[in-house]
């Protein structure tokens, strides 16, 4: 069985062709500049280029990443006319992400007709959150009429590393309490109680939560009104500023890449030093909040680019948390700079374990697609993945 996995952005399409039987990637890459001079005119043309360049293998199905599924989709699903209409109905909740996801689905259906197309949602994993965690303290009618609530994102990443952490702890997933920290350019933290998400830092959109590469994270909403009054900003301008010109970039004025920030901080750049301090402080606060929410925590998990590779950031986040049961082993932490190994970085006497677990969102994606095709798929709360097995070995491309 050969699966084509697609991640369609507004001007790009990332793809991976995967042979399920051999557990092998046959091809992967990205087409960029869609709709821009010199690039494909639209997603259909981009998909045609991809198919033309793929090895001569018969594709069994196409899996599509869809960022926002609203409340309707609590699991991955076979796309039909009704499903596509429902995805379109919630596109205003993710105006930067869902429209290109939809364009990619429609283009792929045209270019590859007659085979199943399956949607895998970033938000599905967090649909287990209780009302008291996902509702905002705004007029209830906003939720009832427009779906204004916390949804959360990076669901496949949080699912994967939480299951792997349960294996490392030697416990069933549904008996495991975790705080999982996906720290890349985008950052989200999840509180996982008895194997399911009960809270997460991102909200209605991926803008809320921790400080990110270019996103502001948590913000007093009155700041927006204040800056409208001071600068006369329009909604579109503010959207650009908060999503693309804030976060680490906004603090430093120059850098969004943490490697550049660390170098500048070491060279004495005060704003770079401040960015490091602010990011670590915010992440530490989320750990404390989620420890309170969970009551008992088995482990804290770091994952994604910076979570897996940036030992200095992990050390800054965990500084002074020994009194909360998080005791880091300095040498283990500094040695954990691999995207291949799952590593325990807590000290032997740490009441709460600390893991660095490389994420693998694509295996969740592929396994959901295959299970749906084979008629054995269930929601993630009941579904057993191959990586739940202690004998599982992650394949690094």
Short account of what is shown:
The protein has 397 residues and is of the alpha/beta class. The chain has helices spanning 43-53, 81-89, 98-111, 131-134, 140-146, 155-169, 222-231, 235-244, 247-252, 258-266, 270-294, 304-309, 311-318, 330-335, 361-373; strands spanning 2-8, 13-19, 24-31, 61-66, 77-78, 117-121, 178-183, 187-193, 196-200, 299-303, 343-344, 353-356.
How would you explain this protein's 3D organization?
This protein is α/β, with parallel strands linked by helices and 397 residues long. The protein contains 15 helices and 12 strands. The strands form 2 sheets. It has a 6-stranded mixed β-sheet, with helices on both faces. Helix 1 (43-53) packs across helix 3, helix 6 (155-169) packs across helix 15 and helix 10 packs across helix 11. It is globular and about 60 Å long. The protein starts with a strand and ends in a 24-residue tail after the last helix. The mean pLDDT is 92.
List the secondary-structure elements in sequence, H or E: EEEHEEHHEHHHEEEHHHHHEHHHEEH
CATH topology of the largest domain: Nucleotidyltransferase, domain 5
- In round numbers, the mean pLDDT is 92
CATH architecture of the largest domain: 2-Layer Sandwich
Assess the beta-strand content as a share of residues.
Answer: 15-25%
Helix-residue proportion? 25-40%
Largest sheet: 6 strands, mixed
Number of E-type strands: 12
Shape label: globular
Instruction: Return the domain count.
Output: 2
């Amino acid at each position: 069985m050969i699966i084509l996995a697609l991640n369609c952005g507004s001007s790009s399409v990332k793809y991976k062709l995967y042979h399920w039987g051999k557990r092998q990637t046959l091809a992967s890459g990205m087409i960029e500049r869609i709709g821009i001079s010199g690039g494909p005119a639209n997603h259909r043309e981009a998909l045609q280029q991809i198919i033309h360049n793929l090895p001569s293998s018969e594709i069994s199905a196409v899996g599509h990443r869809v960022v926002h599924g609203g409340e309707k989709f609590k699991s991955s699903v076979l796309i039909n006319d009704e499903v596509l209409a429902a995805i379109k109905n919630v596109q205003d909740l993710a105006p930067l992400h869902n429209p290109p996801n939809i364009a990619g689905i429609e283009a792929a259906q045209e270019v590859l007709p007659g085979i199943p197309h399956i949607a895998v949602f970033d938000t599905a994993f967090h649909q287990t959150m209780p009302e008291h965690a996902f509702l905002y303290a705004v007029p209830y009618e906003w939720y009832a009429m427009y779906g204004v609530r916390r949804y959360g994102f990076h669901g496949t990443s949080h699912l994967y590393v939480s299951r792997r952490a349960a294996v490392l702890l030697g416990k069933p997933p549904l008996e495991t309490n975790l705080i999982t920290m996906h720290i890349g350019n985008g950052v989200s933290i999840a509180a996982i109680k008895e194997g399911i998400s009960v809270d997460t830092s991102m909200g209605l959109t991926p803008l809320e939560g921790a400080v990110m590469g270019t996103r502001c994270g948590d913000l007093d909403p009155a700041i927006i009104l204040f800056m409208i009054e001071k600068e006369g900003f329009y909604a579109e301008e503010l959207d650009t500023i908060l999503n693309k010109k804030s976060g680490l970039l906004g603090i430093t004025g120059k850098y969004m890449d943490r490697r550049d920030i660390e170098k500048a901080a070491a060279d004495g750049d005060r704003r770079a030093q401040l960015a490091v301090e602010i990011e670590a402080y915010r992440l530490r606060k989320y750990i404390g909040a989620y420890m309170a929410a969970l009551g008992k925590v088995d482990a804290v998990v770091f994952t994604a680019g910076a979570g897996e590779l940036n030992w200095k950031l992990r050390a800054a986040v965990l500084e002074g948390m020994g009194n909360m049961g998080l005791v880091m082993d300095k040498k283990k932490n500094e040695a954990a700079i691999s995207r291949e190994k799952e590593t325990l970085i807590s000290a032997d006497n740490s009441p709460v374990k600390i893991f660095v677990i490389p994420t693998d969102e694509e295996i969740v994606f592929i396994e959901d697609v295959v299970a749906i095709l084979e008629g054995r798929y269930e929601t993630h709360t009941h579904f057993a993945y191959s990586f739940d097995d202690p004998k599982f070995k992650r394949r690094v491309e």
